[in-house]
Structures are given as structure tokens and as C-alpha cells.
Specification:
4-stranded antiparallel sheet, about 15% helix, mainly beta, about 80 residues, 3-stranded antiparallel sheet, NE0471 N-terminal domain-like
Length: about 80
């Protein structure tokens, strides 16, 4: 099992700075998702910035969320 998300901060250009339970940090680019379903609403910067950690993953105010495994595996470690 991959580590879970414990903190997230939205950054410029639809990138998330993410902290994981194993102590790693990464950057996750949300842009590839912005034209799909509920993620379209995240094109509004205020909605994008509403992201919060939620039960090991991340969630936005509109209810959109991502699998923590996807975020971990598809992010760039820093």
C-alpha cells in the first residue's frame, strides 16, 4: 500500500504540494484532469484552492477527490 496524504497546499499553475505519511513531499499537476467531469469546476482558481486533506486523500469543496495512490505514483518527488 502506498502512503496516504497528510497535507496539501495549492500552488500556481494548478499544481499541488503534497505531504505523505512516509515523510515524502511531492508536486502533483492537476492540469491533465481539468477537462474531465467534476474536475472542470477546478478551472475556477478559488475552487482549485479549496483543496484539503481528507481521510488519507485530498478533496475539494465541490466534492471532487483523487485516489491517494494516483497522487503518490503520478507526482514528482521533491
Amino acid at each position: 500500500m502506498n502512503p496516504r496524504i497528510i497535507n496539501v497546499i495549492p500552488e500556481n499553475d494548478y499544481v499541488l504540494h503534497v505531504w505523505f505519511t512516509n515523510g515524502e513531499e511531492s508536486r502533483f499537476d492537476i492540469k491533465p484532469y481539468l477537462n474531465n467531469g467534476i474536475f472542470r469546476e477546478l478551472q475556477d482558481v478559488s475552487m482549485f484552492c479549496s483543496v484539503k486533506p481528507f481521510i488519507g486523500t485530498i478533496q475539494w469543496a465541490n466534492g471532487a477527490d483523487l485516489c491517494p495512490d494516483t497522487v503518490y505514483l503520478d507526482s514528482i518527488k521533491i
